[in-house]
Amino acid sequence: MVEINSPNAIAKAVVFAILPAFVGYFILGLIANEPIVASLFVFLGIFTYLFQLVDDTRKQASKMLFWIAVELLIMPFAILIFTVIFAGTTGSAAGAAGATIGGTFLMIIAFVVGVPLAAISYLISTRLD
């Protein structure tokens, strides 16, 4: 059984969990092609639980940056899934081609921006740990 820390530690964990929860909510909403509000609370609960297991604020920040790095690496794949789903639901071949071209462009941007940001976030997280 895992021991729950003091209310102050849980409040700190909630503060650190907000950003990764929003990123996870965005990724899941992108894949589902509509916002799923319940996923925000699920992600917030998961990340709060993970972060409250650590007492030290630096280690909580390190875990937050690590999970943001993981989410940034997942982002291009989420855009790929969204592109495939959206291109399949368009009514015409021209719409599917446009959705595919736009989705590919977004996936390249997410990869070019996301991988360096993930690397920086990971390096900072290892430095804090």
Summarize the helices and strands and which ones pair or pack.
Blueprint lengths: L6 H26 L4 H16 L4 H33 L3 H36 L1
Describe the structure.
The chain is mainly alpha-helical and 129 residues long. It has one domain (7-128). It has helices at 7-32, 37-52, 57-89, 93-128.
List keywords for this structure.
129 residues, mainly alpha, 4 helices, 86% helix
State the gist of this model.
With 129 residues, this protein is mainly α. The protein contains four helices and no strands. The radius of gyration is 17 Å and the shape is elongated.
Please compute the radius of gyration using only Cα atoms: 17 Å
Report the biggest beta sheet as strand number plus sense, adding barrel if it closes: none
- Separation of the first and last Cα atoms: 25 Å
Number of helices: 4
**3D shape:** elongated
Which bin fits the share of residues in helices?
Answer: over 70%
- Low-pLDDT stretches are none
Q: Give the total of beta strands.
A: 0
Strand content: under 5%
- The structural class is mainly alpha
